[in-house]
Design a protein that fits this description.
Layout: H1 2-42, H2 50-63, H3 71-81, H4 89-103, H5 110-127, H6 132-151, H7 154-163, E1 166-167, H8 175-192, H9 212-246, H10 250-267, H11 281-285, H12 293-307, H13 314-332, H14 336-352, H15 355-366, H16 371-384, E2 395-396
Length: 403
């Protein structure tokens, strides 16, 4: 009993430290990305960096001598098995992600959050000479803290860190410290100036929870979101494999695909598809969307990742899901804001294979009044997106047996 109290006290202390440290890091990270985005949007000539920007990202990783650090996949492995995570991952992903947004690559920031948080979390445990099991917990705690500080969703961040490493099993041993770190980091980041990710739904859907036809329409959008997530992840995986086989020189790949993204940026002007694209979602929620937008954003993101830009794919998937949901909502006669929200939740669930987190993030961003819709979105998307997700290192334990 005494030993358990000591371990709990030790992990709690580390959670508080990580919450403060990653709250500061995450808050500064958000401000840097936002500053880079604002500058690019007001100085379009920066887009001409796209063909060479990915080369500079690769050179940065070479400079830090962590070209093969494994990225987010390495962090997820560490979260369940105490595999070491290099501390060099933190500065390299921080700088490269900010620079990727500055150039106009269609990338997100959640991959950076998981890598930054996981790297600092693991090495904090190592610094305090914690046991292998405790260092593994620190990796998850760090992910929770940094995700929370960047997105302003502490509840979802805490659940995400215990759900993502092993699909079908929650690492509940990490729940309390992850919650502590998530709420502390969010408070610290908010003090620095990082806002919460909150959106308001229109009142047009009130009362729809009791209407079977509304639930059917939501389910249709959720299925579409799951299938879109499957397509997105397949394009990322197969596209990366094919191009690395055909064009073995990564610097040449960077120039070719960076140039294609630049060309597409002029074909589709206004930087609508450059960067993360979160600012576009408010327009989708008003119904201001065209049928092909989710496809174009998907293409921009796949090409940016193949070129070698860093940051992650979850935030672009929010854009894709929101555009898809809003478009389908217009066809089905559903409130655009609700359809947009369902599309976001279902797409997030599909690419991460984390239905509990998807349900939580829907509530945290859009409010609890839409919880029944988000539950449907998470369930159907999880089923139809299959076994494929963004992270190949995810271990899966809960699919139907072959019997």
């Amino acid at each position: 009993m005494k030993r358990r109290i000591i371990i709990a006290a030790r992990i709690t202390a580390v959670s508080i430290i990580l919450g403060i440290v990653l709250g500061i890091a995450g808050g500064l990270f958000y401000l840097c990305i936002n500053g880079a985005t604002v500058f690019r949007q007001s100085h379009s000539f920066v887009l001409f960096l796209l063909p060479v920007g990915a080369i500079l990202v690769n050179l940065l990783y070479k400079l830090f001598k962590n070209e093969d650090d494994g990225g987010t996949n390495q962090v997820l492995i560490s979260a369940r098995s105490d595999t070491p995570v290099s501390i060099k991952m933190a500065p390299s992903i921080f700088i490269s992600t900010v620079f990727s947004h500055f150039c106009g690559a269609s990338v997100g920031r959640e991959g950076a959050a998981l890598q930054l948080g996981g790297s600092i979390g693991y090495n904090t445990g190592k610094l305090f000479h914690l046991t292998p099991r405790e260092k593994s917990l620190c990796t998850s705690i760090g992910m929770s803290a940094c995700f929370s500080s960047l997105f302003g969703t502490p509840m979802s961040a805490a659940v995400f860190s215990i759900e993502i490493a092993i699909v079908g099993r929650l690492n509940l041993a990490c729940l309390v410290p992850s919650v502590i770190a998530a709420y502390i980091s969010r408070h610290v980041a908010r003090m620095i100036g990082a806002p919460d990710l909150e959106m308001t739904l229109s009142q047009a859907f009130e009362g729809l929870t009791t209407e079977p036809i509304a639930l059917i329409k939501v389910s249709i959008i959720a299925v579409a979101g799951g299938l879109a997530a499957l397509l997105f992840c397949t394009l990322l995986e197969k596209g990366g494999q094919m191009t690395s086989e055909k064009i073995k020189n990564k610097y040449l790949r960077a120039v070719i695909f960076g140039s294609i993204v630049l060309a597409l940026s002029f074909i589709f002007p206004g930087q609508t598809y450059n960067g993360a694209g979160v600012d576009q979602i408010s327009a989708f929620m008003r119904g201001d969307v065209v049928p092909y937008q989710f496809i174009i954003k998907m293409i921009f993101t796949v090409l940016s990742v193949i070129a070698g830009y860093k940051g992650g794919e979850i935030v672009p998937s929010f854009y894709i899901g929101a555009a898809l949901g809003a478009f389908m909502g217009s066809l089905l006669g559903l409130s655009p804001s609700l359809a947009c929200a369902v599309g976001m939740v279902s797409m997030f669930c599909g690419v991460t294979s984390c239905p509990v987190t998807a349900f939580a993030i829907g509530i945290e961003i859009f409010g609890s009044s839409s919880a029944p819709f988000f539950l449907l979105a998470s369930a159907f998307s999880f089923f139809f997106s299959g076994r494929k997700g963004l992270y190949s290192s995810q271990k899966r334990e809960m699919y139907f047996s072959k019997e």
